[in-house]
Amino acid sequence: MDGARRPELLVLGGGGWHWERLARAARELALPVRRLGFPALRFDATARYGLRLGEDEDLPGAVLVRFVPGGSFEQVTRRLGLLHALEALAVPVINPATAIERCVDKSQTSFRLRLAGLPTPPSWTVEREEDARAILEAEAAAGFELVFKPLFGAQGRGLERLRGPEDLPSAEEASGVWYLQRYVPPEGGDRDFRVFVIDGEPIAAMARRGSSWITNLRRGGRPEPIARAGALGELAVAAVRAVGAFYAGVDILEERGTGRLLVLEVNSQPAWQGLQAVTPFDIARELLAAIARRMRR
Ligand SMILES: Nc1ncnc2c1ncn2[C@@H]1O[C@H](COP(=O)(O)OP(=O)(O)OP(=O)(O)O)[C@@H](O)[C@H]1O
Ligand SMILES: [Mg+2]
Fold this sequence. Notes:
Strand order of the largest sheet: 13-12-11-14-15
Distance between the termini: 17 Å
Number of helices: 8
Shape: globular
Number of strands: 15
Number of domains: 3
CATH class of the largest domain: Alpha Beta
CATH architecture of the largest domain: 2-Layer Sandwich
CATH superfamily of the largest domain: ATP-grasp fold, B domain
Bound molecules: adenosine-5'-triphosphate, magnesium ion
Helix content: 25-40%
């Protein structure tokens, strides 16, 4: 089978800034690389390994999943299935399909963090509106607010603070699943941290100062450089291990009053354009260098 294994790295995802940075870093590292979108991949029983990647029947040396685009349930199932198939053919897939599944579904991320014994705000994921309402009422009675998040949400879209039962999104708004997480007031105003982890190392970190309680850069948050070492970096590395990812962006919040660090979220398809702006070295190059080492292992 090795005879048909090319040395190149296949990057899955769209073009744009991240691909340009990856392509440039690949040239610097003399790592052969090419890019395809998921639609260009097919299951094909007549191909040598049952897959055709673009025009190619051969297998790449490794796959970097930059971005799995959303789509119909069927499309997303096929895309993740392609990643599982590549892994079944012993192609290193970064991140592995299982890690992507655990991170895309926030209920699974929360479950895995808790299973690993890592600090994360309490969360609940239910399908019955009356269950969501009862949780919200009990939390409000105990003096807590909740955050509603779309199960597959990203970039701060669709997040809502719930102060009482009247704020609960309808079944339609919630797509029939309520992911509820306790709101944690952050130390230092509307601020949290993003740590970028590659192969067990916290390679870069930033604070994000929000223009609202949602600090995502796409929502007007501003990046500020911070140290990646210490407790913050260690927690991020443990969170990435808990979901089984090779690289990830970890959102961490410092609880006001206690100073406790809590993991909010692990992102298995992280963007790094904002982080790059406050990082003195090339993140794309670090990522590709780590993948090249992984390909040689
Ligand atoms: N439980 C919480 N308490 C306080 N602030 C929160 C909480 N959950 C989220 N936030 C704020 O909202 C932002 C976005 O939340 P989160 O990272 O969970 O979702 P997302 O960014 O939409 O998803 P992803 O990180 O998967 O792209 C956080 O960075 C933080 O600023
Ligand atoms: Mg986030």
